[in-house]
Amino acid sequence: ADAGPDQPNVTEGDTVTLDGTGSSDADGTITAYLWEEVTASGVTITNANTATASFTAPAAGAVLTFKLTVTDDDGQTDSDNMEVTVTAASISPVADAGPDQTVAPRATVTLDGSASTGTGLTYAWSQTAGTVVQLAGSDTATPTFTAPTAAEISAAVLDTLTFQLTVTDNANITSTATTNVAVDDSVGSGGGGGGGGGGGCFINSMF
Q1: Beta strands 63-72 and 30-37: pairing type?
Q2: What angle do CA 133, 138, 144 make, to 5 degrees?
Q3: Which pTM value belongs to this model?
Q4: CA separation (Å) from 37 to 59, 75, 81?
Q5: What is the phi-psi region of residue 118: left when phi exceeds 0, alpha when psi lies from -120 to 50, beta otherwise?
Q6: What is the DSSP letter of 172?
């Protein structure tokens, strides 16, 4: 009997295959297989009377032992055990760099990655396009910067700055997202036109 190698990193909820196809009989043929759980977790083994059975992994932390018994055409039997260790499901992080924005020159702009999800997240912001600005708090969820002036931006009316957020969880898995900030010198402007000047008046009186 050959119950296959131990499986030390099975994720909870996964379908686990028990593989006894490595079993053999030097002088005959294996006619029967039987998979049984030695531990008492209560999992249900599907196709327990075949070479390849399966079950659904229970909650994380369970360590299960399974025994495979094979019978050959002479009625002789042999058994072999294997062990399955169930670990917690890994939830990958998801970066969220926040919505695009349109701001006026010199405005104080806040980028918002607080909607990102994951466990034990760290944050790293970088600028990937547009007039270069100085990010304050680039290793936080909500860094800030001052929008460039009309004289500083490469297009006098409009420039788009692009920022990338990279989040890393406690399993060192990363995710990235981007957001755009349009700097438009027409935002917030609008004063009215000046009033016209009054004309002078000269009266010539003849007596």
Answers
A1: antiparallel
A2: 55
A3: 0.52
A4: 16, 22, 9
A5: left
A6: S
